[in-house]
Amino acid sequence: MTDRLAELTRLFPDLKLSTDPGDMEHHGRDWTRRWPPSPLAIAWPASIDEVQGIVRWANQQGVAVVPSGGRTGLSGGAVAANGELVLSLDRMNRVLDFDPIDRTLTVQAGMALEAVQNAAREHGLIYPVDFAARGSCQIGGNVATNAGGIRVIRYGNTRQWIAGLKVVTGTGELLDLNRGLIKNASGYDLRHLVIGSEGTLGIVVEATLALTAPPPPSQVMLLAIPAMDALMKVFAEARHRLRLEAFEFFTDRALHHVLAHGAQRPFDDAYPFYVVSEFDAADAEAEAAGLAFFEFCLAEGWVVDGAIASSDAQAAALWRLREGITESLAPHKPYKNDVSVRISAVPAFMAEMQALLTREYPDFDVVWFGHIGDGNLHINVLKPTDIDNASFVEQCEHVTSMLVDTLARHGGSISAEHGIGLVKKPWLGSVRSEAEIALMRGIKAVWDPNGIMNPGKLL
Amino acid sequence: MTDRLAELTRLFPDLKLSTDPGDMEHHGRDWTRRWPPSPLAIAWPASIDEVQGIVRWANQQGVAVVPSGGRTGLSGGAVAANGELVLSLDRMNRVLDFDPIDRTLTVQAGMALEAVQNAAREHGLIYPVDFAARGSCQIGGNVATNAGGIRVIRYGNTRQWIAGLKVVTGTGELLDLNRGLIKNASGYDLRHLVIGSEGTLGIVVEATLALTAPPPPSQVMLLAIPAMDALMKVFAEARHRLRLEAFEFFTDRALHHVLAHGAQRPFDDAYPFYVVSEFDAADAEAEAAGLAFFEFCLAEGWVVDGAIASSDAQAAALWRLREGITESLAPHKPYKNDVSVRISAVPAFMAEMQALLTREYPDFDVVWFGHIGDGNLHINVLKPTDIDNASFVEQCEHVTSMLVDTLARHGGSISAEHGIGLVKKPWLGSVRSEAEIALMRGIKAVWDPNGIMNPGKLL
Prior knowledge:
- The structure is a homodimer.
- The first copy, chain A, is built from 16 helices and 16 strands.
- By secondary structure, chain A is an alpha+beta fold.
- The first copy, chain A, has four domains: 3-88, Uridine Diphospho-n-acetylenolpyruvylglucosamine Reductase, domain 2, CATH 3.30.43.10; 95-210, 2-Layer Sandwich (Uridine Diphospho-n-acetylenolpyruvylglucosamine Reductase, domain 3), CATH 3.30.465.10; 218-326, Alpha-Beta Plaits; 333-435, 2-Layer Sandwich (Alpha-Beta Plaits).
- A seven-stranded antiparallel β-sheet of chain A has the order 13-10-12-11-15-16-14, with helices on both faces.
- The two termini of chain A are 31 Å apart.
- The relative contact order of chain A is 0.12.
- Chains A and B meet through strand 8, helix 7 and helix 16 of A and strand 8, helix 7 and helix 16 of B.
- Chains A, B: Residues 35-214 form the FAD-binding PCMH-type domain.
């Protein structure tokens, strides 16, 4: 133990702390695997007091702090590769309060998203943010990245569901932001500044989450789409005729990997594109609207095959085709692009990007999928086994620099929902102006004057 | 003309500028009438270039700038009483773009809310933020105050509908924030920092507004409520059974003034409290639910009389009872409280506040109304004719100081939707902690280092 850690132990004798190599390895990285973990130590505070104490100690000792949730991030935002103290929220994972009139659930930041969803359901309500990492990711990390996922089209991002937030700033001050009020016009809404700040301003320690009534029964439909330019026509039609819960797309290459990973083949034939859509189907009329939508798209030639789930098990099987993609790609160490444009720009952007990627990645397996109803595409480039990691990333980043130009022409963003972290930092300037970045740096200096909060990430 | 204004004219020969006493009087104040207007001049820029130029000139000359929209604000946020240049957005009032796929409307900041609503309707969509000042207030001011109103219960505040924002900072930099993207995880969301900042960080010059599909046909119902403690029971029942568009309450004193101002009496008898509610009634089933809700509340004794509008004209007449209140009170120079608590805290808070106001204002006419489904109450104290303005305000502020303690005990806010401006500034510390205020000041210094943007307001 270093002197600095000894001092921390002296100040907080009950604080759980580890320098065990296994812990350091495990908690020093996120789902990116690019940076070898090298933290100073891992701390598991059990209270807000301990979090504040750690931050004050870190300021005195000049130790950088990496706030650490489920570490399911894909941008390196939770990596500790430079002697940082990892501050894990794992032990702060309880429900603190439920209010049936306000319809709010107050939880500690270390609670897993799925546990939050379950707690809401126990009260007959839902917390509607949802995505595949639900079992591991934590609500504090969801806030720090403004997590999106598969229901954004209906419910928006995490931002929309945060009624209150307790945050420990970079100087160790505890802020109790908005306190669950629906209306509160009392100056800058610092809550919204913290949401999406990737742990660079402070540490989220508690959140008061707005819940809502469950949606009506829904139907899940899988569509086979013959050509890229039909995708957004199908989407426009679906949005016009149905009340959408989700509208997700993936390519034949994505289906290939998810089938190889154990999912069930949905159609006898193969098609270039697929859509999984879920929509309200409370009554016979709404169900008929779903069928009419399908038949219209079929007649137009925008859809060439389809399946409607007639049981929960079938719905789950159809969803698995989309939700299993990320896991099925993981063994191939994918280089991940997570881009967005306005939905009106999707067709032109996709065409241009496909031309670019076909030209630049002639030999790589490129897998497309994503939340196309939000203008958000995930483009995963799989690492061929005969190329080493470093040169693979180098080649991919070369293409990313070209992709960034395409994005800029279409008014898009290099990070739709993964955040900037370490991975996208070289391209922050492609989506935010110099003036914006200068303001961000200035704001960070106000919140974290000694620069100890997740340094090197984002900015 | 001073030398400073001569310099401005030299730099921008085409800039519309006035020091006419009538203009100064008219544009130097908002709907508060407490501060005698005393601006340096009024400027009406016609372009973003001119706005940037004015701000750069103001920095060089050390002139304070008050951004000015429809000046319908109730907190003094747009008052120019100290030789400021009033920067009016009146001439920047055009629609710039509509995108049917993105469902966004891009407008200049000086466009009136009602004009925005009409432009959306022309495209078969709605911009759902709405309140009585719709004809005069401007979208830039709506953003600067995060305007709320009568549909928040269904659609949220202005914040929820801002997909992109162009802002000129206190140094004259133009920011193009978020550019209409649905998903964009690329650092601090400065858009949300500007929303609600009351012109203290910069000037909103353009907004890209998200639109949505119109709601189904609705019904408007007026309910007579015999006792305060029944109000929130009726609300809970309505929220449970109906899909609410609005749930507004007012007292017999409010009805008295709105009737005196020309509205039509709804019931033969008088009752202590009233609720106007609007809810979806797309089909016979939904209409029946409305009736069942009413009959249930009647049977419980929570409601003692009611009326359902059977035509648009009747609906408008019922709404006028609520929407006409502010105008009917204006001749009485009301001292306005605009407070909020979590809705679970409303009953206890209201009881305590009523006791306080009855004790402290035995001789004043106190009028309650507001968005009770959002936990937001407007309490207007009317000025007796035999008291002068200054001592009336002084007496009211004395009571506000006590009200603030009550609010604090119930976790509430001294400003629900009017903002802090000049009027609520003495009590900012009751709702925001010292640490929060210090962060706000630090952020303001980053955006506006010379302190020229609406100085003295909010902070």
